[in-house]
Amino acid sequence: MRSHWAVENNLDWSLDVIFKEDASLKKKDHSALNYNMITKIALHLIDMESSTKKSKRSKRLLCALDNKYREKILKI
């Protein structure tokens, strides 16, 4: 049981640190749930990419700035 909560807490911490999810103001309709699903998918894609030894936050920034790296992450 504790291991389940450890995984859940680590995921919530990662989403908050990398995507600043707790500071998000998305409240209308299903926008908070939709944003949460998109951030979890993005976090998973960042986790799967292992060609660089950068932090998850750095990889996220690199995706925003570099089209080729973003394509690599999205496997286009």
Concise overview:
The protein is mainly alpha-helical. The chain is 71% helix and 0% strand. It has one domain.
Q: What key attributes describe this structure?
A:
about 80 residues; about 70% helix; single chain; mainly alpha
What's the SSE blueprint?
Elements: H1 2-19, H2 31-48, H3 56-65, H4 67-74
Task: Walk me through this protein's architecture.
The mean pLDDT is 82. 4% of the residues are buried. This protein has helices spanning 2-19, 31-48, 56-65, 67-74. Helix 3 (56-65) packs across helix 4 (67-74). The chain has one domain (2-74). It contains four helices and no strands.
What amount of the residues lies in strands? under 5%
> Oligomerization state of this entry?
single chain
Enumerate the spans where pLDDT stays under 50 for 5 or more consecutive residues.
Answer: none
- Give the beta-strand count: 0
What is the overall shape? Answer: globular
Number of helices: 4
Tell me the series of helices and strands, N- to C-terminal.
HHHH
